[in-house]
Amino acid sequence: MTEEEGLHDRGATIVHILPGENISWVEGPFNFTTYLGIGSLGWCDTWRAPQHLMFQLANACFFVSYIMPSTRTGTVLMRAALVLGFLIFSAWAWVIVCAPDMFVWNLCYTCINIFQLVFILYQMRPVKFDPELEEVYHTLFRPFKVSRIQFKKLICNEMAQIISLHAGEAYALQNITRTDRLGLLLSGKLNVLSDNHFLHPILACEFLDSPEFESRANMDDKFKVTIVAATSCRYLYWQRTSLEYLFVKETYLATVMSTLIARDITTKLYAMNNKIVTEKGFHLDIRLPCITSTLSSGDRKSPSVKALKKHTAMLAGVAPNSPDSVTNSREKLVKEDAPTPAVPNGTVVEIQAPKDVNKTGIGSSNEIEFWLETSSKYHSCEVVDN
């Protein structure tokens, strides 16, 4: 072996990473090898041709699914696009790539999205009601975003019944019928009476016994009013126990029903303000400042002022929500004839107002108080429908 060959055998190899092609050369006793820099960093030297058209279609479906809005319709379209995309991927894996593992995984994803799509479509199915119930849904529940599925739970046969009344038949009798129910009038008209005195009517899409339902204290409470059908009527009828059981499961529906009942009670109470009229037929609104200022003064304790004070508190919601203040609010506005001119308990009054009140609606507290104390005509009157 020559000395030069020995040097070559003992020579070291130096590797350079340069941005050029692979080059090897020998310089003196050392071997130099240069490798491609991009390949050394893990990048591809060469690129394959684009995948099959089925692969491209599947990814296009995924792209479409991910840009769908988050609405109910957008969710349906997203699931449909995912089903189509995974189905194409499954076919691509089975026919083109021949990869059983990819085929199985994509087939599982396809089945999952099919089940999700069917469930969403089931929830979106059109739920139809009778024309009367459809009117109730659109008038009362749809403004509160109650779905048709939730409303169907409220009016299903297990929860409610639809009952008919002929003219003259009673829904409830004073001091006889128990307050263990809740009724909603679908069609017709009913009248509310207390000791044969007319209080107010009940029209379609109004609750029949919302005050009694809201303020019921025990199982033995009775109606303090009589509710009689003025025309042929149909109403929706719930048992209290059934509603309470449903409200435990459907909390949003319970909130909506509580709101509707409270609004119905308020409407009934404020409607009775129309029964306060003067001798000449003028309506006396107890919410007027001249009346309110007189009622708010605590110097005078006349029976008439006390009566209007109690009536004002009842209408304005100042009185506590108790059976005495809510359940009896309707009949407190009417009382049987009595020898004394002053009638307590917020009785409907028909009195002649002073000129200042009738014309301008304003007056001093002394004038209003003197007018209330000296007036002696107190009796009920029916509300005249315009």
Q: Could you describe the 3D structure shown?
A:
With 386 residues, this protein is of the alpha+beta class. It folds into 4 domains: 3-40, no CATH class; 53-123; 131-274, Jelly Rolls; 276-374, no CATH class. Helices cover 44% and strands 15% of the residues. The chain has 14 helices and 10 strands. It has helices at 3-9, 37-40, 53-66, 72-97, 100-123, 131-141, 148-155, 210-215, 240-249, 251-271, 289-296, 303-316, 355-359, 365-374, and strands at residues 13-18, 23-27, 30-36, 160-165, 170-172, 181-187, 190-194, 197-202, 226-229, 233-239. It has a 4-stranded antiparallel sheet with strand order 5-9-7-8, with no helix packed on it. Strands 1-3-2 form a 3-stranded mixed sheet. A hairpin with a 2-residue loop joins strand 2 and strand 3. The radius of gyration is 41 Å and the shape is elongated. Mean pLDDT is 73; it is low at 11-23, 32-37, 298-305, 314-327, 331-363 and 371-386. The chain crosses the membrane at residues 76-97, 103-122. InterPro entries: POPDC1-3 (IPR006916), POPDC1-3_dom (IPR055272). It is found in: Membrane. This is POPDC1-3 domain-containing protein.
Supply the number of structural domains: 4
The top-level CATH class of the largest domain is Mainly Beta
**Basic shape:** elongated
At CATH level 2, the architecture of the largest domain is Sandwich
Question: How would you summarize the topology of this molecule?
Answer:
Elements: H1 3-9, E1 13-18, E2 23-27, E3 30-36, H2 37-40, H3 53-66, H4 72-97, H5 100-123, H6 131-141, H7 148-155, E4 160-165, E5 170-172, E6 181-187, E7 190-194, E8 197-202, H8 210-215, E9 226-229, E10 233-239, H9 240-249, H10 251-271, H11 289-296, H12 303-316, H13 355-359, H14 365-374
Parallel strand pairs: 1-3
Antiparallel strand pairs: 2-3, 4-10, 5-9, 6-10, 7-8, 7-9
